[in-house]
Design brief:
about 270 residues, mainly alpha, about 0% strand, two-stranded antiparallel sheet, 2 strands
Length: about 270
């Protein structure tokens, strides 16, 4: 429900920015809400006949994955944590959150990590309300990692499912590229590698591309990565361009091309 200010266009929530301290407070509030609801009971303590998921203890598990001995209880130490630690905790909590009334629907062997609780979506939806207002905006994805908030067009593309016939290897490569490019602390080298992964996916389909596109387009697809410092490192490479801007365009272009080629291949098999 939208209230007066938003409903009448007097308040634009999309333009609001918050400090990290404010975000951290919202994160702790969000954590406490789900913790008090019992959604971390299985992770922290175990539930009924099921052992805890954070083994051997929440303190030990978080120490091994966060590298900070003063993390748990989160409501006690959360106000002292830096951005990297908070973001890491968010990803961990998203992985382990479970509604206890859903647990009996699964055998122990099924429950983790492949099955998901509806609490994950609730946790994502809540934490994303605040992530989008921090810095230039972030997002906790369905896969469970935090990325820079992409523009609307690219955001829709990275959420789009690959065609059903796509191999597990290609699916993993695409997911790796998306995570590498958009993770909140990625640098130019990681973004370059992410673009290269997408170009490598297309390489085995090069013969098919000649049937789907013109020779000029086929040359352009591989010419970009071969001549603009993505695949090679030699004196002939064109390096004098605004990489942050053009790398995002390249990623969008190659991801869209991967989707298109795989979809055309699927049509060919029908």
């Amino acid at each position: 429900m939208q209230f007066y200010g938003v409903r009448n266009g007097k308040i634009n929530l999309d333009d609001l920015k918050i400090s990290f301290n404010k975000f951290r407070n919202f994160f702790i509030d969000t954590y406490i809400f789900f913790e008090e609801r019992g959604d971390f009971k299985l992770a922290f303590n175990g539930f009924q006949h099921r052992p805890r998921l954070m083994k051997p203890s929440p303190e030990a598990y978080l120490f091994n994955h966060v590298g900070n001995k003063d993390v748990f209880p989160i409501e006690q130490y959360g106000h002292k944590l830096d951005k990297v630690t908070v973001f890491t905790l968010i990803e961990i909590l998203h992985q382990f959150i479970w509604k206890t009334d859903e647990i009996d629907d699964f055998d122990m062997i099924e429950i983790f990590p492949d099955t998901k609780s509806s609490a994950q979506k609730e946790f994502r939806d809540e934490i994303n309300k605040y992530l989008m207002h921090l810095d230039e905006g972030y997002e906790l994805t369905e896969k469970g990692y935090i990325i820079d908030l992409p523009d609307n067009g690219l955001s829709n593309l990275i959420r789009q499912d690959l065609p059903v016939h796509t191999s597990d290897t290609v699916t993993m490569q695409v997911e790796t590229a998306i995570k590498m490019f958009f993770k909140y602390d990625s640098n130019l080298e990681e973004k370059r590698k992410a673009i290269n992964i997408l170009a490598d996916i297309l390489e085995p389909y090069r013969a098919d591309l000649k049937n789907y596109t013109t020779n000029k387009h086929d040359t352009m697809i591989f010419g970009i990565v071969n001549n603009y410092g993505i695949r090679h490192n030699d004196i002939d490479q064109k390096e004098d361009y605004e990489k942050p801007v053009w790398h995002e365009w390249m990623f969008h272009y190659y991801l869209a091309t991967v989707h298109a080629v795989l979809s055309l291949k699927e049509e060919h098999f029908k």
